[in-house]
Amino acid sequence: MKTNFRLVLTVVACLAAPALARAEEPKTAKVAYSALEIARFDVNREDYSSKEAERAGKISDEFLDGIQRALLGEMTRSSLFPAVRKPAESAEAGSPVLILGGRIVDFKPGNRAARYFAGFGAGQQKIEVECVLKNKTTGEVVAKEMITDRKVAGWAGGSEEKGVEDFAEKVLAFLKRSIGAP
């Protein structure tokens, strides 16, 4: 009985040790980037090759600015990087900078009233973006991923701002996976 108990304690200690060590790791990128620059997402307003591309072309400049603001806020609060900013003209000498950018692939503004009154997916908001992380100095693509967020429902039909905040959280998760952050 004592042997089994010792064995169980040994196994638990072995399994818990890596988790405790990980919990003490600093919340910074493995490749010590000095800053994250968040570019405004691109959109091709002349692409009519598909209904998704046509919808994406209708996104307003104000909405694109709102997405960039939401991303700046979410990434700043995450504390993954010493600095989070809009793109600067030049990188500081010797300090690697990561650029987050991408292209709007599909956009549905949605209809809050339809989400509230009809439900069942009516009036859903959709943002689909091909996100790209690049090393500013080398131009190397560090990671690339399609990120889609849908606002199907919510309190009183949900809000456009909440949809953008949810999208920013998904982009943060992509960024963490890409740089190996916890």
Give the strand content.
Answer: 15-25%
Total domains, how many?
1
Mean pLDDT: 77
What ranges have pLDDT less than 50 throughout 5 or more consecutive residues?
16-30, 154-158
CATH structural architecture? 3-Layer(aba) Sandwich
Strand order of the largest sheet: 2-1-3-4-5
CATH superfamily: ABC-type transport auxiliary lipoprotein component
Structure annotation, total helices: 5
Query: Which CATH top level class fits?
Result: Alpha Beta
**Dominant shape:** globular
Order of helices and strands: HEHHEEHEEH
Helix content: 40-55%
Strand tally, please? Answer: 5
Biggest sheet, in brief?
5 strands, mixed
Q: Cα distance, first to last residue? A: 39 Å
